[in-house]
Amino acid sequence: MKFSGILLFLAAGLAVSTTASVQPFRANNNYEVIKKTFYYASDNRPVGKPTFSSDIYFSQSYFEHSSYEYDPHLATASLCLAISTYTDYPPFDEEWYLTQPKNVKATLESIGFNTFTTNEDYLQTARFDSIGLCAAKKEFSNYTVVAVAPRSGGYFSEWANNMHLGDGSLSDYMHEGWYNAANKLINFLGEYVSENNINGKVKLWMTGFSRGGATTNIAAGLIDSKLDKGQNLFTSASLAKEDVYAYTFEAPQGANVNSKTIKAPRDSLYGNIFNVVNPNDVVTKVAMSEYGFTRFGVDKFITTQFYDYDNFKKNRQTFKALHDILNQTDEMVYSGDRFVTVGLQIEHFFKGALIIPAIIDMIEQDPDDVIDHTKANYDANIATTILIEELTSKLGSRANYVKKYQTPIENLMLVMKDEKLTDMPQQNCIFLRTILSSVLADGIFGSFDSIRDSLKESAGPYANAISDCIDVLLGPLLKVYWERPVELTSVAIYIEGIFQNHYSDVNIAHLQAQDSYYIDTYNASHENKIELVPLRSNADFGRMKFFGFNDLGLRLESKKGKRVVNVEGHILGKSDVESCNGGYAVGYYSYVTEEKMELFMPINAKYNISMKSYSKKPRHRCEYWAYYQFIALNNRGVVKVELDHKKTTAYFNSDRYKRDVTIKL
Known about the structure:
CATH class of the largest domain: Alpha Beta
CATH topology of the largest domain: Rossmann fold
Low-confidence stretches: 1-24, 346-354, 420-425, 613-665
Strand content: 15-25%
Largest sheet: 8 strands, mixed
Helix content: 25-40%
């Protein structure tokens, strides 16, 4: 699912952590490991090069351990299989459609799978509710591995179905579009096993990327639930939960904690479903957590600077080396980490800063002049999370979204993914930037004209259909802008880098960086060695909010007494963020009557919070609260577990105020 348009704002979630490093997986060396070449379409492709190639490693050892044990080698192989399902690009004639599965067919056959089969949707023009599916099998001495994967890229009109949340009545509260696709996958799988006379013990290998990942995630969850209830998935073959190997990549959130007929998505039952997630990829934050959406199974997280600060530099060195090999050049710049918050002052408006290109020019000329230094260590993850939270609150309930926004947004996506138009992600970035830039200008002047004028230039004959959708969304977007102008402007400026976190070549390099097969192969032929950095299994975070004060100074110290955040308050003017260590982030907001502060930090420590007020008020009020956020193991949804000091209101006179707090479950 290439992320574009309004989808950017339709979710919530934040992923940061400093959990202990995970020990590398030890493969079973009793089985042969084969290396083959596979081909895939890249979102980051240059003109004239529609496909890329890389290595895929395969071994029977992947299926000789319980599926509840994460296998980094199987994870990388699963991603290779998932992105080889991509549809190529024009010419859209009948013969072109019939050849769409050629890359995934070649991938499976190269590692010994046979009897490759697709459903009809894979060979026809994509529709709003279609889902391309393929399967193949490989027989071993005492079991048969059946591989199944949905088409995970280049699906054009199917993309609009991602917006079809539904009200939950027809999907057990899960995302209705992906729920329907998941049931098609399960039916297709049953037909494949039956039609190919597969008997005895079956081991199921499931994978998917993006929209395909969401489909696979729900399908695997439903299969686990059926097996847990003693239901047979196949009539002539046996399947156990320990033999369901499901790996998804950059999958949106389609499961729901409000489902009534199955166990909660994070129950240990689904521990054989692994979802590899880049915290800076906004696609993984939809559909909205506020509506109860999440993923089945266990999330594994790609290293980011905020989330895994200690290993970030080492990881990116490894990632870049492997990414350069994938693209056969060291000039393919990865900009997914290139994000800073941009703060505009009144004087900037007189320099033409009402349009995004003008702000970009200012950044290139004098970055310190426009960077917002009151936001320390914000990355794309934090900024988009904040924006998503704001917009979701403006859209209202799930029922209100379905009633008022769902159809217009689906129509917008159908237009943007018209198969007769180019499907280049770069153009989607330009289009989205145009919209956000216009929202910025219209937010100042209260006019819708600039958006319509921009659309006439960028969307041509589709301008009216698109503007009708934006007309519905303009009100919520403008409210978000007035609440979070810095974050909205910054996301608009760095939108291409945010998009890049979802590209197939970027994700392959990230997965290879946690796989010793690729690390060892690289080091065998290069003088400059690279190191393996395992994925993490935890992205829990602490988030504290301070509000209701004027001119507050704040110190945040770790349990070892090390100061990690230092904000200096002032009698006149706004406070300054003096320092913020890696692995933490702080956002300071100054308003006419009060200030507000947000802290993002690890949850595995006891913190000493010291606050000093410079207010001239005789008795000054300061409220603070914090929580540890996670998706519960039961059906209670997103749970906010308060600190030992649940909510505190303190009155004090310009003296130091201290309180120890412990974030605990």
